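Re-run with default settings, no changes from the original entry. Doing this only to confirm the output is reproducible before filing.
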Amino acid sequence: MSAFSPTATVPTIATALILLCAPASAMPKDTPLPGSTIGTVGGNFCAVKAGTSVFESTSEGVQQVLIDEIYSGSRGYLLTGLARFKFTGEKKGRLLFNTTSGYPDDVRKPRFSNYRARFKKNLNRLKLTFDIEFPGCTVRFIGKYWD
């Protein structure tokens, strides 16, 4: 008689799959997660430069990301530094940059959409993706963070 039991294995596999892709709410709170961004290019000179990044989700529900460099398109603005997410829906809102005084509001507070944070609990790794929408162009942000 075999020790293998298909009915006992199925729940174990399902549980393992759920743990591998835990929701963002399972990610560590009040702990800056170091990581990096993957360079991406959108249309009309929009780009996210590959570089270092830090992500933090606080116990008060604030989410913020430290961004190396983003180019806002043909208008020629460079964004860098800390940006806080201000959600207006489940996957959209505005990014609020702290270091861009003198820039127009639609540049220093660009819209974001398609927000997704996937935390792999067993690896303590977070993948963050969202689209940044500037006037005339949209660029994809991809960040990978680990504890």
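Residues 1-23 have pLDDT under 50 and may be disordered. Residues 22-146 form a domain with the Lipocalin fold (CATH 2.40.128).
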